[in-house]
Amino acid sequence: MINIKNLSFSYNKKINQLENINVTIPKGSYVSIVGSNGSGKTTLVKLILKQLKPTSGDIEIETKNIGYVPQRLDSFNSQFTISVKEILNCHLSTLKLPKESLKKALDEVNMSEKLNSLIGSLSGGQYQKVLIARAFMGNPELLILDEMSTGVDSKAQKEIYSLIKKFNTEKNMTILSVEHNIPIALKYSTHILEVSEGATALYTVEEYADSLNNSTQYIRKVD
Ligand SMILES: Nc1ncnc2c1ncn2[C@@H]1O[C@H](COP(=O)(O)OP(=O)(O)OP(=O)(O)O)[C@@H](O)[C@H]1O
Fold first, then answer.
1. What separation in Å is there between the alpha carbon of 46 and the centre of ligand 1?
2. pLDDT in tens, 37-53
3. Residue minimizing CA distance to atom 17 of ligand 1
4. pTM above 0.95?
5. Which helix (H) or strand (E) element contains residue 103?
6. Burial state string for 181-220 with b = 16 or more CB within 10 A and e = fewer than 16
7. Complex ipTM
8. Pocket around ligand 1: residues whose beta carbon is below 6 Å from it?
């Protein structure tokens, strides 16, 4: 699905933020991207989205149908007097999708009743679900999320992760999710991509739990 070959990236031509990464991400996997602050997780996502160009190496992606949920702060200003419907309609026109995709996407995230609400009136979890609905509208084969649980309470978090897991298992959607919460990463993912200086690597969730010398208590096996 995603083949990252000899990838290096530098913002300033002095230090490589990412150094010689070789990773193959299987189709249908749910990969949590973990690593310390500043290790390069968002940079890697931007390279996969072609928002940045590798300094060297290459990223091959099997599909062009990619949904993206940006980090909360990268997104639109929640103070804008713009409704959920307007935000989704705008995306609908950009992707030239049929009208019914809007309702379907909002239904998927259980937010139909918020269609006419202003974005600034939504809670953190509801706001995040609108962003997920927007990313989901084109029925992407690959869904990329950057710290999706920021500003979201634990009840809404559970709902959002279960939803993403459902997309992954029922639609065979490949998920790439930047994640700071390791127990959550171990619970929902099939794989962990650890971004760390000179040693970025992909593990199965079991391998990663073992490497942490952790018990398998957090792991929920994929059915
Ligand atoms: N536009 C930029 N110009 C220069 N340096 C940058 C730029 N964006 C990020 N960096 C630097 O690149 C490094 C990796 O940043 P990145 O945002 O990818 O890390 P991250 O792992 O996502 O961090 P966090 O967990 O804190 O979100 C950091 O040292 C950061 O300061």
1. 11
2. 999 999 999 999 999 99
3. 42
4. no
5. helix 100-108
6. ebebbbbbbbbbbbbeeeebebbebeebbeeeeeeeebbe
7. 0.97
8. 11, 17, 35, 37-43
